[in-house]
Predict the 3D structure of the following.
Amino acid sequence: MLKKKIDLLEIALIAFMAVTVIFTAMAAGYDRKIFMIQLVITIMAVGFGIWRLFSARRDSRKFLEYVGGRLGAVKSDALIKFPLPVAVTNGEGEILWTNGFFHDFVMKGDECYGKNIKSLVENFDLEKVFAPGGCEVTCRGGNYSVCATSSAEMGEKLYAFYFIDKTNEKKVEKLYEESRPAVLSITLDNLEELFANCKESEKSWIKGEVEKLFEDFVAENHAFLKRNSSSKYVAIVEEKYLRKMEAERFSILDRARKILTSEEQPVTLSIGVARGEYSLDKLNDFSLQALEMALGRGGDQAAVKTVNGYEFYGGFAKGVEKRTKVKTRVVAAALADLIESSSNVLVMGHRFGDFDCIGAAIGMAEGVRDMEKDCHIVVNRETCLAKPLIDKTEKAGTLELFISPEEGKNLINEETLLIIVDTHIVNLLESKEIFTSCRNVVVIDHHRRMVGSIDNAVIFLHEPYASSASEMVTELLQYLDGRCKIKKAEAEALLSGIMLDTKSFSMRAGVRTFEAAAYLKKMGADTVKVKELFSGSLQSYQHRSKIVSTAEIYRGCAVSFAKSYDDIGIVAPQAADELLAIKGVASSVVMYKTPVGVSFSARSLGGMNVQVIMEALGGGGHQTMAGAQIPDITPGEAKEKLLAAIDDYYEKAAGHADEQIN
């Protein structure tokens, strides 16, 4: 208010002086004597006006200082001589008084009386400044921590704000944040496979291109890089350069993929990143864990370990099949020892078990029984999607093999061994209670690694390049124990799992897949009998046709929403497979309503990575086969989330996915 009154006084005086000058100028044209008299009066009036303006400003400052001395919360000279910048405002935030420190250091000498403190100070929050620790603000390029006190003086609410300079601390903090070390463990995924059929000259060229790739990486990011072997590297970079890599979505992955052999095979990298306030040895350990996660998801990507889990970048190339079975033989020997030392064995898969899950479980359970150990498969028959396989196995004479989760809990003791097949995610298990009750756990899975995986397994056999869990179990049984003999029923169960996940050997079928299938055929598997397991009713076929006929194509992805049929859990994946036969479709997603929300069944021909899309919706799976479930959501909202996930996939792919589809 005082500032407004002073401003009005200035305007009035300036107007008065202007009018006086005008009249004096007019008098010059009429009478010189009158003009001279009026000129003297004008000079005196202007002089008086200027003196009055300065005296008004001086008097206002003296008055404000008087007010400062009269403040109830901070009387006398303590506030004026306080060694921190101080500003006093009324209840509306209008600045009534400041000490010299505030005027000189916070405002940089600019006048601020009468102005609102919120218009001068950024991030100013009246509620926060009264909280313990105050409020962090910015003013004229400086950083401050502001605390406040309040008092009522002459019936008016007054606030005193104390500014603590944090500018240098913020600079040091920023420097510390940006210069913290991050460790990157880098490996060439497929160097041995690339060199298998290359000439020496081509090998040298590839090595040279890889070395140039890493030299450019070091120069761009001012990194320290050390090669541990022909295909393994470790790098240390500052946090600010790691943020730059994340902003570019680890462009080194794309540049590596442009290095092609004469057979058009690309070089791919996997990167494990660890950051944070840890020692270098811990960062190195965490980066190796992140690298394992990246490799477990199929490679060709970067996994950044964070406080809340992992963030992934890349992952658009197909996994590379490893042709050696050395690892399988070693795991089989260790698994045989575990089985021998156990009192009984339980085999369990994921919820809504399919042919691969149940087929792998049957093969594993019968192998354990051949070793003369009590073994059962834990499955919920009501929700299982492979009931025909269970019925066929029981008709073949394998009785009391399948038990419910409730029955399985009663069989657990301290020496029970739990073998988990076709999943490694705790939340997807048929029974979490059984998992938490068993001390010894073995995991056999082929799905790409996800956050929330089982981390306490005695044996963790994870091969994301394998076609199916049934393929992995088939290989294990050949080395498990001399007493293990695969019979016809088990062979057909395992073959049904392989056929399901490879779409009858048209997708994800590698050399080892055909070797496993050939072995099962040798053990008596009848392909016609296996094919009959996939036969459905006429009603199921009609439901599947309706789903296909209502599909829409969005950016190369066929999207359809299905009604909640009784057999929807079986029909939806089949419809998603059929949608891939449509020209111009690179992937397909079938959505359907469930009692708890909306489920998604996704399929791909390999051009799009449906695992990445489903992960954005809280699910996961493989590059060509994945799924998700979102609780408490409407079909319309589910579709919006799906389309947004597809858009996000293309943005993250940075054109890579478009090239694959086109």
Observations:
- Confidence is low (pLDDT under 50) at residues 71-76, 655-662.
